[in-house]
Specification:
The complex is a heterodimer of chains A (about 170) and B (about 200). By secondary structure, chain A is an all-alpha fold. In chain A, about 80% of the residues lie in helices and about 0% in strands. By secondary structure, chain B is mainly α. Chain B has one domain. Helix content of chain B is about 80%, strand content about 0%. Classes of the chains: A mainly alpha (about 170), B mainly alpha (about 200). At the A-B interface, helix 1, helix 2, helix 5, helix 6 and helix 7 of A face helix 1, helix 2, helix 5, helix 6 and helix 7 of B.
């Protein structure tokens, strides 16, 4: 996949050319945007600590193995590697959590391994369903989501299964 | 989330009590250390990417994409008032571009626009929820950045697999939403019909 390596640099070059055409000060925009990263990191940091502490306990205590054996028939059926169970369990609840689990997978199995690539595709294929539901509906009176959650869950699972299949081929 | 976190902690610490008490506290600390390391990596990624996204915003490119999305929004959400429609457009555009911090406020506003005081979610709300939950991001920049930081030889290799799997999850979500919508409408009509027949 040589093409994909060119994608991001080419996009940035065309964006900067467009910015010149629009007579926009790209430099000051970039600086202003980069400044916002500080807030973003600060707000996500406490969540990352909470998740990492829980995940670390989960794997060190051997709980992940217990869960792994319980879930393995289901995962086998869907063609999902059992090593990714931690990631998939955290995924619906928190975006930070799945990044934390992904980092652990990188460290244990190597970034370019099948498991790591699979994990990357899974992280990109869906978001934290419960988190989004809670936040998006926070200012409405809605209490019943009828078919919303099941549909989101089924499509997330389909995305995960696809990710595992595709990464096996590619 | 609270429940999940509590059960992770209690089960994990509980098991360690029996297995190896000595490492209990050091496990907590090493978790926190990892969080700091990841935060630093994320900071580098966010700084570059938010800078680039700000250029996108300042050149007005995101508004152009929003306009392109309008016909699709009409098809997916049915008729909505123009205000809600533009909120949905902003939400979807920021989703596509991976501007995580921009899609939440617009998503909340769009939900408010759909709100008619009932406690049951409308089909439009559910569609928005499902589309957001299944992710629309075209470029998984955060994940690519993490791969770079971890020393990957081919960090960009995951763009295509991610695109395909997010496409599958989003499209299947939309299709299922549409099917459920039709089912519900039909069920409602049946009830109304039943009532009419009953009255007669």
């Amino acid at each position: 996949m040589k093409f994909s390596s060119y994608l991001i640099p080419l996009l940035i070059i065309s964006l900067i050319i467009y910015s010149i055409y629009k007579k926009n000060n790209a430099y000051s925009s970039f600086v202003y945007g980069a400044k916002n990263s500080f807030d973003l990191v600060l707000t996500s940091f406490p969540y990352l600590v909470a998740i990492f502490v829980a995940v670390e306990l989960f794997s060190v205590s051997g709980l992940s193995k217990v869960f792994g054996t319980i879930l393995s028939p289901l995962f086998n059926l869907l063609g999902i590697p059992i090593e990714l169970s931690e990631l998939i369990l955290l995924k619906p609840f928190t975006g930070c959590g799945s990044l934390a689990a992904l980092e652990n997978i990188f460290a244990t199995y190597g970034v370019d391994s099948y498991l790591a690539r699979c994990g990357c595709a899974i992280v990109g294929s869906s978001e934290a369903i419960f988190y989004i539901t809670a936040v998006y509906f926070s200012q409405t009176k809605v209490k019943k989501f009828s078919y919303g959650i099941p549909v989101a869950f089924i499509s997330m699972t389909l995305g995960i299964v696809t990710a595992c299949l595709i990464c096996k081929i590619m | 989330m609270n429940l999940v976190w509590i059960s992770f902690l209690i089960c994990g610490l509980g098991l360690l009590l029996f297995k190896n008490v000595d490492i209990a506290f050091s496990t907590l600390l090493s978790g926190s250390e990892k969080a700091i390391a990841l935060s630093l990596k994320l900071w580098a990624i966010y700084a570059v990417w938010l800078g680039i996204l700000k250029i996108v915003e300042d050149t007005g490119l995101n508004q152009k994409i929003s306009k392109l999305l309008n016909p699709i929004i009409d098809k997916l959400f049915g008729k909505t008032d123009p205000n809600t429609q533009s909120e949905i457009a902003i939400n979807l555009t920021s989703n596509l571009l991976g501007m995580g911090n921009a899609c939440t406020p617009s998503g909340i506003n769009a939900m408010k626009g759909f709100d008619k005081g009932s406690n049951i979610a409308t089909s439009g709300m559910i569609m928005l929820l499902v589309i957001n939950a299944t992710s629309l991001e075209i470029l998984p920049t955060t994940v690519i950045g993490l791969r770079v930081a971890a020393g990957s030889a081919t960090p960009n290799d995951i763009i295509l697999p991610t695109l395909i799997s997010t496409f599958v999850s989003t499209i299947s979500g939309i299709i299922m939403c549409k099917i459920c919508e039709k089912f519900k409408k039909k069920a409602k009509q049946d009830i109304i019909l039943d009532k009419k027949v009953y009255k007669q």
